[in-house]
Amino acid sequence: MAHDGAVILSDLFDPEPEVWGLRGDPYAWRALRDHLADAGATASADEAPGLLRTAFEDVVGVDLDTDTRSQVYREQYAHGGMSSGHVCLQTWRDRLMPLLVERARRPSAG
Hints:
4 strands; 3 helices; two-stranded antiparallel sheet; 110 residues; mainly alpha; two-stranded antiparallel ribbon
């Protein structure tokens, strides 16, 4: 349980989105969740966006703010299929990262 308005960052990843950009995205999502869970990372709603982006860079190896590519290939996320291993950076910028940030800003139920 987090303290004084802080959120446990790995808790933001549940439930998973129903729609992804490319086949590597759910694997990157889970790797990011696990990375943050292993670190026991907590943050205020204001700190969460920066910490999430830093963790994404740690896990995927891309800075979403400065890297202009629309996608990258990461072998560790390749599990079969045509776009296997590809992480859609545009989807992370436009939908997935904003979803996590929005979840961090929601008041906890309870």
